[in-house]
Amino acid sequence: MSVQDLEKIFQDAIDSEIKIEPKNWMPDAYRKTNIRQISQHAHSEIVGMLPEGNWISRAPSLKRKAILIAKVQDEAGHGLYLYSAAETLGTSRDEMINDLHSGKAKYSSIFNYPTLTWADMGAVGWLVDGAAILNQVMLCRTSYGPYARAMVRICKEESFHQRQGFESLLVLSQGTEEQKAMCQDAINRWWWPSLMMFGPKDSESTNSDQSMKWKIKRKTNDELRQQFVDMIAEQIKLLGMQLPDDKLKWNEQRKHNDFGEINWAEFWAVVKGNGPCNKQRLEARRKAHEEGKWVREAAMAYADKKANQKKQEAA
Amino acid sequence: MNIQIRKFYYGDIPEEKSSASTYKTEHDTTAWPLWEIFIRSKQGLDHKHVGSLHAADAQMAIENARDVYTRRQEGVSIWVVESKYITASNPEEAGELYEPAVDKIYRHPTFYNLPDEVNHM
Ligand SMILES: [Fe+2]
Ligand SMILES: [Fe+2]
Q1: CATH value at residue B94
Q2: Does B71 contact A74 at a Cβ distance shorter than 8 Å?
């Protein structure tokens, strides 16, 4: 069969909402785009554990500590589901980890911002997980089967992440003057970086068209961002807090909120590695990998020894 | 009123020193094999494929599967199979494999028109 024929069969399957599975023929670019996107997504889950892990030992109560540990543990699982999905496309875990550690692979820039107060844990859950969830809900219907299945699993676990974050802020918003100020301060710092999570504007985004045609993505960056603004603009009223944007206003004609311009210079600076914590995050990942090396080796040696013992017993 | 928010920069501070470009990656010779994980969600139901993970041996695969796939009581039993032992059918042979069943509609109960009076059949 010619490549054109194969491509037609492939696109027909996608157009009729049939999932692409690992052993199906797929264009090279589809494979590559998925490997890049899924591995980036996996890296984000793993690096995303760092800013929150930072507060586990300083959580204000046992209850909050247990919740935070559960959430961070979920994120580790999300990383695993996604790495496994990427591996079905022919890349290896080793390769992906190397690309992360060398700086070749990207992860979500949001995790390059520091978490400075306890209120940040609430703001991260509510805004950062909230933004991630919109993207992830869309990806439950992505065209590559293993990716879609990983997302379904992830979405089931995610919903508590956003809820615990909002609830934690709600408690602060009803607390002392100092706690209220902390709550507002965290929202101020996390609002704009959360909006940036949806990526460049549609007019600037290079991969968008092809990804939409292949149904890897089903909504554009701007559509998702607007959805997020509309959702948060309502929820913040319950907190009695303000979003740090004086252009934020309901537009009756559009039936959406208008909002101010993102600082794109900052966006690109962080993407290119010059955010507040880029270096620190990468170093933490490399350190964990290097210091865990003897454990991986020891486990493998032990497994080999046991397998040999079994063989001898059988002989 | 003057409110001071205490910010904790330790443990999560931006750092100036860069080593991003000098980092050398090495191929990991310690890579653990891949395992496919099957979970029985409830007594009486089939084990169902849920995903895969890396582990040094079967015991570790079960323990890791417990940690990632049953944190919310999703399972009562776990099977693990090293991925290399799974043989999958080829999608290109889908025609020869599955098409012969397409025109055998008489294998379905709905093929048979019976009088309304016949119950429980
Ligand atoms: Fe996650
Ligand atoms: Fe999350």
Answers
A1: 3.10.20.520
A2: yes
Q: Does residue B36 lie within any of the structural domains?
A: yes
Instruction: Please report, rounded to a whole number, the percentage of residues in chain A having pLDDT higher than 90.
Output: 92
- Whether B95 maps to a domain, the answer reads yes
Report pLDDT for B17. Answer: 42
3-state secondary structure A171-201: HHHCCCHHHHHHHHHHHHHHHHHHHHCCCCC
Which residues of chain A does B88 touch, with a Cβ-Cβ cutoff of 8 Å? 23
For residue B79, tell me if it sits in a domain: yes
Answer whether A84 touches B (CB < 8 Å): yes
C-beta of residue A110 within 8 angstroms of C-beta of residue A196: yes
pLDDT, chain A, mean: 95
Look up the ipTM and state it: 0.88
Pair A81, A16: CB distance under 8 Å: no
B81 forms bridges with which residues in the sheet?
Answer: B36
A272 part of contact set with chain B, CB < 8 Å: no
d(CA A222, CA A294): 46
For chain B, residues with pLDDT lower than 50 are 15-21
User: How many alpha carbons fall within 13 Å on the CB side of residue A251?
Assistant: 12
Task: List the single residue in A with minimal CA-CA distance to B68.
Answer: A77
| Domain presence at residue B61 | yes
| Surface of B (73-92) touching A: CB under 8 A | 88, 90-91
**What range does the domain containing B37 cover?**
31-107
Q: pTM (2 decimals)?
A: 0.91
Number of domains chain B is built from: 1
Asked whether the beta carbons of A286 and A46 are under 8 A apart, the reply is: no
